[in-house]
Amino acid sequence: MGIQIFILLTIGLLASAQASELDFDLVVPFPETEPTTKEDKVALKFKPSLYIRQGCYPYPAVDEDGNTNAGLAPKLLYGAGKCDAVYGASQGSQVYGRVKEYADSWAIMYAWYFPKDTARIPYYWGRRHGWENVIVWLNELSENATIDAVTASGPGDDYSVSAPPAASMVNGTNVKIQYQNTIGTMHYVKVATSPGRFQDLVMWDDLTDAARSSLNDHKFNKAEVPINDANFPTNLKSAYDAWKNES
């Protein structure tokens, strides 16, 4: 047993050492998760759409070998440039999902990666890499569940709350999410009324070990991976508290 553990650890370390950063449009996404488990079926059923009001389109953050997205350096002119929706993600886009029962609800986090993030005029600043997420809160783990609330990562570390979202903000079981920024803020997501696009959903447990390791360990500059092992529990607590404090 000791030798087996040593071999597995060695393989993991070698895979991590061999992983590298790839150009923002060369990271190959994972195929969409197959609906093989109850968690997968529910996560696919409630997958939100994403409307890009301005800024980058979402791109894959990591590939099956653990290679990560190198992102894009912000330019001195406001705008998305090569990563906007006109160009799109040449390899295909991705949204990452993770499910957990939390307190009296079921939480499904959906997280998107963006190659860069910028703030709006009259002030300009930007950075390489961006992550945003929403959490859909269900009354039960079922395809017939009711959406009790949606929490979305807003400017800073705060979650905005829609509890429950208005009918105009949901298409069937799919919440409409908008990616935007306002004067003086970096990009963030919120529940909105504009229809958007869907990205292939890959669940955390369907990622390869190398991909999970990279999302757990790789530093995307100041953009923290919301769905990894370190941040997922913290984000669930912050979002749940924001929801309940608003009730």
TrEMBL record:
Keywords: Secreted, Signal, Virulence. The keyword Transport does not apply. GO terms for cellular component: extracellular region. Pfam families: NPP1 (PF05630). Residues 1-19 form the signal peptide. It is found in: Secreted. Belongs to the Necrosis inducing protein (NPP1) family. This is Necrosis inducing protein NPP1. It comes from Phytophthora boehmeriae. The lineage of its organism: Eukaryota, Sar, Stramenopiles, Oomycota, Peronosporomycetes.
